[in-house]
Amino acid sequence: MQTDLSGILSAVFTPMNGDGTAIDTAAYARLLKSQVALGVHGVVIAGSTGEHSTLTTAERKSLCEAAVATVRGKTTIIVQVGATSTRDSLDLARHAMASGADRLMAVAPYYDRLRWPDLQHYLSQVAAIANGPIVYYHTPRVTGLDLTEEQLVSLTQSGFISHIKDSAADFTRSVRLMLNPGAPKVIAGTDPGMMALLASGAVGSILGASTFIPEICVELYQAVCEKRDLAAAQAVWKRLWPILNALLLNGYVAMTKAGAELRGMPVGAPREPLLPADDEARATLKRLLAEAGIGRLPAVD
After folding, report:
1. DSSP string, 92-113
2. Of 110, 122, 136, 137, which is the active-site residue?
3. Does the active-site annotation cover 165?
4. Among residues 28, 136, 165, 257, which one is catalytic?
5. Mean per-residue pLDDT, 114-125
6. Model pTM greater than 0.90?
7. What DSSP character marks residue 213?
């Protein structure tokens, strides 16, 4: 089912058991319910913060099924189906649509760098399964594909994409896209650019941080995009940015999972090769959460 996208769209992490060998399905359900309770506008399943590169295809399908069973109709469910092979991506896309996902997002296959015709063909196949345009996860650092404004417009006009998760860290191009009526809608996809892109016309954000600090991310979105209150937004950003910066400096996935545990929602460690956050980084994050006035997450049924 196609649905419009806006707001805080959390790239939710994947809870693991103690040794990282299996997904903690009960913790995953609690996490998704917490996201809805705290006002996020959508959840992204099996994105980068969700550790999709270390999950099996079967595990990724199970996450999609769990999300649909837990929060369908309560928030927008976006399933990231990108993989290293087209075969796996299309398999995941068919499964997500059959399971009841609202939208698909795809990163380009990222081991062998694609040429422009390769990417067009790949996205055309995913969009055909989605019965409409998808969200393109634009992350040149990972894929080696740094698309131009003209290429992104072409993909939009071809009906392959409607939005991009803009993780390119090229603010000039982002502004040009937001002012180009033929371009895909921009969703902020980098933590440092979150407020600036929202204030410049991005329709929302897809970040992992909102998985463990959803309420302050929603507060920022409301101040910028709904109330148009720049002073209030700047005050929220001054509380939020030190936390985001700590994630970037100390291992993003490990720190988001540590943050959830510090807030009373243990979700296990990252799956190897990633290691848990060390004691010093955890102490820093604990201090920053306290300074921002962020306490325990409310309990959910």
Report:
1. HHHHHHHHT-SEEEEEPP-SSP
2. 137
3. yes
4. 165
5. 97
6. yes
7. S
Long-range contacts of 167-175 (CB under 8 A, 24+ apart): 167/137, 167/138, 167/139, 167/140, 167/141, 168/138, 168/139, 168/140, 169/193, 170/146, 171/196, 171/197, 173/148, 173/149, 174/200, 174/202, 175/200, 175/201
* 47 contact partners, CB below 8 Å, separation of at least 6: 11, 12, 80, 105, 137, 206, 208
Whether residue 137 lies in the annotated active site:
yes
* Structure token digits, residue 217: 């991310």
Assign 3 a pLDDT band (cuts: 50, 70, 90): low
Q: What are the structure tokens assigned to 295, written together?
A: 């306490």
Question: For residue 5, which of 66, 63, 68, 78 has the smallest C-alpha distance?
Answer: 78
Beta pairing class for 103-107 and 134-138: parallel
Nearest to 255 by CA among 283, 277, 272, 273: 277
Name the residue with higher pLDDT: 142 or 154: 154
pLDDT, tens digit, 9 for 90 and up, residues 234-292 = 999 999 999 999 999 999 999 999 999 999 999 999 999 999 999 999 999 999 999 99
